[in-house]
């Protein structure tokens, strides 16, 4: 299941398979999963010892990731950026990203929502903008590039380019935390509109995740094409904070 429990096994050739969740190896003696720096108990969905790096790995010293379907902890220390989104690029995490590949969708809208749904909470926590691109592959499906961290009130989606052989079609970004009137948090800024309208950038639309959880989009003429609620609107503490 999603927490690493082996529900059933078909093994007619009696091959030994000890690999479990990313970075984990089954220990037959204890029934636990060895996770480099500590042991994980799949029945409890938690580690049996405290995190050796303390609170740097998250507020729960025994906890695995809050969402084991998308987040990974290959070293038993802290959450790594979602390997399926391609957000991690170095070492083992980069290898996993290349093997698994990004989540893909049938529409630009769904792709942008997925990307913003994953990053809006962190953007609020850090009070920094995050941004990335929406790309189209050869089969006509869409995926997002990893969000890159911008400034408090500024980001540039093209710092996370589409891979070779894919087409850049749209972009997404967040607006950080509520500025309490200092900035126009809930609408596209003049700079945002320049980005989407620029012929050099060549994108069809630009998506926004706001501090209040609104999911918005404008086309390359500046016309609003999407406006609905549903994104995270609070700072959620998680493993990589």
UniProtKB/TrEMBL annotation:
InterPro entries: DUF4329, Rhs_assc_core, T6SS_VgrG/RHS
UniProt xrefs under Gene3D superfamilies: RHS repeat-associated core
Pfam families to which the protein is assigned, alphabetical: DUF4329 (PF14220)
Residues of the DUF4329 domain: 110-228
PANTHER family per record: PROTEIN RHSA-RELATED, PTHR32305
Protein name as annotated: DUF4329 domain-containing protein
Species whose genome carries this gene: Escherichia coli
